[in-house]
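Annotated sample (chain length 238).
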Amino acid sequence: MGSDIEICRVGRKFPAAGGFFEALKDVNAVIPEGKFTILKGRSGSGKTTLLNIIGALDAPTSGSVLIGGQDLGALSERERDDLRRVQMGFVFQAVSLIPSLTAYQNVEFSLRLAGVRKGRKERVEECLSLVGLANRAKHMPAEMSGGEQQRVAIARAIAHRPRILLADEPTAELDSAMAAHITQLLQELTRKEGITILMTTHDTGLMDAGDMIIELENGRQVGVTMKGAAEEGGASHV
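Output written by the structure step:
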């Protein structure tokens, strides 16, 4: 099964004083397999809500999300758990590394959670090398910079070879140089690992990094641009 992500007329309402707050309103897009997609918009635009729905952490109030043709809404809670544990990787603004474990052990832990038994040592070493931290494997999170911790978090998220990596504002706590480095790393991982990566950001300096850019404003999708179309002087809107 492929990992194209189809977002079909997705809406999400949350209870609020006097009624409901519409966090998402009729969002439609197709995120292609094996591409690096940027989900951009200001704080409060609905980016994280949409990412949580794609990651089967939340469900839409209306509409549907399909991954490889499979409607997430048709899955049981156990099937959704299995999807997240095996087929997806997550990177958040707060890196949430286990402070009592080394970088190596943090990455290996994700393999244990995914039920991977064979080749763990080789895969952990490969992932730390991919993020440029092969020489920091024995270091504890407290001994690392914020950028290094985020790179360990990325290595942990890709260790079990997920089809999809969802990164929610992974550069928000980093300086501009390290934010650019992390974004470039995600671009490279898309090519090297063949992962479908979706990253949210409100950093205007990073928004052109994706193969595809989906822009949200006040919960509405206001544009979808493919890099090829943009480079030719136009935009492709879905």
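Annotation: Strands lie at 5-16, 19-31, 36-40, 62-67, 70-71, 88-91, 164-168, 196-201, 212-217, 220-226.
Annotation: The CA atoms of residues 147 and 189 lie 17 Å apart.
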